[in-house]
Amino acid sequence: MGPFVPELISDQLNLVVALVLGIAFGAVLEQAGFSSSRRLAGVFYGYDFTVLRVFFTATVTAMSGVLLLGYFGLLDTEAIFVNPTWLVPAIVGGIIMGIGFVLGGYCPGTSVCAAAIGKIDAMFFIGGGLLGVFAFGELFPLYGNFYDSTSLGPIKVFDSLGMSQGLFAFLLIAVAVGAFAVTTLIEKRVNKLSAPSLEFKSRRHIAAGVGIFALGLLFIVLPDRKTSLVDKVSDPKYVASHPVIMMDADELAFRIVDREPNIRIIDLRSTDTSASLVLPGEEKIAVRDLFGKEWLPIFSQRHLKKVLVGYDESQERIAYLLLQELGYENLAVLKGGFEAFDKTILSPGPFVPTGSRWDADVKAFREKAHGDILKLIAENKNKGAKEPKKTKKVQGGC
Amino acid sequence: MDTKYMNPYLAGFLLGLVLLATIFITGRGLGASGAIKSIVVATVDGIASKHAEGSHFYGTYVGPGKDNPMKSWLVFEIFGVLIGGFVSGLASDRMKFVTEAGPRIRPKLRWLFAAIGGALFGIGAQFARGCTSGAALSGMAVLSTAGFITMIAIFGTGYAVAYFARKLWI
Known about the structure:
Chain A is α/β, with parallel strands linked by helices and 398 residues long.
């Protein structure tokens, strides 16, 4: 499951990857005609909409790829870098760059590409860019506060607009296809004889437009993988037809007291360590986080018995079936949920004899386990509650 | 009009695949202005390291225990862009020292405006935390709000001021 940084690809190797991807990036930009400032500036005057076509097509392709890879569980979309938003600085920065684009005819990436094939104006652009960053750095105290203002974090655009991810993806595709059609007409009118769009075989382009539009429609109906899997395993019919392995409170208590090494308690209750009691050696994971890459090292160890502890048994069953669906083995559900464990071991009422001849032993065991486990919990508390484990997120941005 | 270039939709598709591969492999997007920043930071640090470490802006990237700012992902990536652009230009026979400008403008004036444009991009990209590649394109691919805002601001402004700069291009 991607991304492969930082687990599979080291920081050093990642620089080699950067070089290779950069070569591909540069070659595509150059082949697209982005090494020509007149072509780039054409988008603002209607004589050449290459920029819009390349830019929008690339955005739609990459976005669709991310959505599809995420849907099929090949890419952990929670782990990838999402550019954080500083609202007003982003707008002001964009305005400054917009003026720079019209005056300079390049953006930084395309200027490097153009300079590589000998465009002298691009070399001046890069020189100006270096001076611009230098000036920005030297005068930083003047606008340091503004630079850090209106920080909203890594928010997603569909949340900002209050719609679903799929609907937004569809609308973006619809806007892109619409823009392709309209700008082709504008380009033909402005140039009359030699517009780049006159080179197109329109039937093929219309077919492609229809195809990509269908993909957009698919995104609306395609729920994200998490939601669809959780829905699938939460269905009462599915739950009823898939038996789970149970562990009762006494057995769990015995294993905790015994300090059994091959057991891992997965606590599905609140991930806030202060809000709920922390059992010895447990991991707190919310159900939706079970998909994340960071838990793979625990879940994928077959010899470890993963005991799921939730508020109640049905929550545990859902998590159990979800993990099973994700391909993990050696799972167990705590019978009766945390409540049962609490009532039997942690804060038991008076012992209710069942009439079995083991009653005396059970009673003695529970009393001993009660003391031992409370002691373990107290020890854990003194050590300071274990912070919820989070792997390093990928860092990115310019 | 030059017609040797690739069909823009095909080029866009390929660019999208490169960006997708970048996100899939490394978990981050492409960029460009970050490399320019690294060069400036490294230069300032090389000439006046005390000044750089004391600055709120440069200080984030240099100082004890921090890697050389040139050893960054985007610097290597941009070096790749240089190679990729060069190879592509060589393959398509477009290698030539030339100044590209509109029909009504002399080369020297074009150089001046190119440098001004570059400087504005350098400044704007700091506020927006990235340029057309790092903030707009890569940000939009992961549906970041910042990506869309930056893209709309760049192109919206471009159209708003294009009329006043028309002598540069048409």
